[in-house]
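User: Could you go from structure to sequence for me? I need the amino acid at each position, not a summary. Structure tokens:
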């Protein structure tokens, strides 16, 4: 059996990285041999918006299409013990930020779309998400738990400026007095500081901002359409000044690529973050090939080394390596990894957090305030 190797540099020479998107190709998805209509699960759809990015080079311009969808449900349940929330709401599918490492990319395969370029240029907007959520929260059978907004998409990606679906979701949460958290890489969250500040005063919200690296050059190719690192630090400061409990996510940790975890934690703490967390790079399904392609394009000298360390972190055995696997979905170790390299990473994180005073106090949101009747819009009693 031949060892599965990353694509050779010569094989990728013809690829032209577009200005903006992070993936230069349409990666074939795992269901591509099945005969299915694109987006067949939702018949009531419409293309709402399409725009091209300006391109300075000779690569063809990349257009972004936003397709409207009527959601059948808003709340998604999660029973994984390694995830800190039990329910989530994602107003969009796909994400314009184009982060190459995004673990949500393979979800586009269920839509018969590529987890590569399609994921960041074909965005599904759940136009009725707030109304559906209101119905679910007003149900007497609903049991409150912390809901996370933006676990599989950035809830403040560019299209949110026009559609305001995330704000609508938060307004429903406010009406129901239902606590929630949100996570983003976008400065767009500052638009809603009025609402977030109000909710924070009642212990109903916590926010997290992801800063993968402070290296602006690396960020431009790793997460090309997200806010610049310095801008995210300003967002942390703005949230903290508005009284919103804010934490920083230094995820994912990619061996030999973003090596400045300590510097990110220091900068975030100085900006006002009081908590922090991290995960290691995860490469499920098609993301394995996507990341391999990106590494050979941008870091051909260390691509094999990076992938070998990722396989070490996930305990991939020799047979798995020969098969080209880079990930183990075991919930015990998938987030933080296992083995000596994972232990060293964990020590770096905890030592720095201890010095900075991060994670000393847990942000406790108040579940007792939830009232189903208020979700129906019968009045807000703040």
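Assistant: Here is the amino acid at each position, in order:
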């Amino acid at each position: 059996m031949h060892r599965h190797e990353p694509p050779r540099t010569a094989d990728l020479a013809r690829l032209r990285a577009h200005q903006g998107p992070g993936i230069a190709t349409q990666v074939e998805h795992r269901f591509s041999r099945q005969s299915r209509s694109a987006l067949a699960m939702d018949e009531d759809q419409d293309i709402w918006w399409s725009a091209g990015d300006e391109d300075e080079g000779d690569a063809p311009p990349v257009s972004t299409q936003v397709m409207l969808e009527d959601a059948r449900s808003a709340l998604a349940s999660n029973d994984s013990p390694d995830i800190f929330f039990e329910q989530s709401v994602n107003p969009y599918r796909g994400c314009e930020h184009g982060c190459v490492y995004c673990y949500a990319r393979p979800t586009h395969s269920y839509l018969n779309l590529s987890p590569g370029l399609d994921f960041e240029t074909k965005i599904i907007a759940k136009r009725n998400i707030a109304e559906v959520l209101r119905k679910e929260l007003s149900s007497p059978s609903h049991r409150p738990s912390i809901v996370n907004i933006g676990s599989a998409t950035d809830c403040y990606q560019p299209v949110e400026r026009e559609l305001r679906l995330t704000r609508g979701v938060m307004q429903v949460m406010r009406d129901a007095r239902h606590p929630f958290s949100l996570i983003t890489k976008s400065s767009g969250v500052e638009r809603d500081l009025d609402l977030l500040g109000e909710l924070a005063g009642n212990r109903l919200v916590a926010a997290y901002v992801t800063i993968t690296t402070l290296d602006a050059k690396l960020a431009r190719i790793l997460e090309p359409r997200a806010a610049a690192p310095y801008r995210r630090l300003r967002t942390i400061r703005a949230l903290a000044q508005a009284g919103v409990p804010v934490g920083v996510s230094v995820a994912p940790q990619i061996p030999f690529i973003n090596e400045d975890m300590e510097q990110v934690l220091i900068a975030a703490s100085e900006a006002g973050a009081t908590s922090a967390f991290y995960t290691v790079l995860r490469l499920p399904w098609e993301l394995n090939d996507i990341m391999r392609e990106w590494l050979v394009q941008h870091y051909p000298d260390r691509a094999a080394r990076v992938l070998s360390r990722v396989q070490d972190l996930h305990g991939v055995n020799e047979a798995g390596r020969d098969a080209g696997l880079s990930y183990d979905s075991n919930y015990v170790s998938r987030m933080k990894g296992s083995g000596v390299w994972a232990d060293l990473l964990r020590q770096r994180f905890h030592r720095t957090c201890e010095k900075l005073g991060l994670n000393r106090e847990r942000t406790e949101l108040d579940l007792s305030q939830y009232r189903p009747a208020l979700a129906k819009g019968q009045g807000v009693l703040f």
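One structural detail worth keeping in mind: Residues 1-19, 33-60 have pLDDT under 50 and may be disordered.
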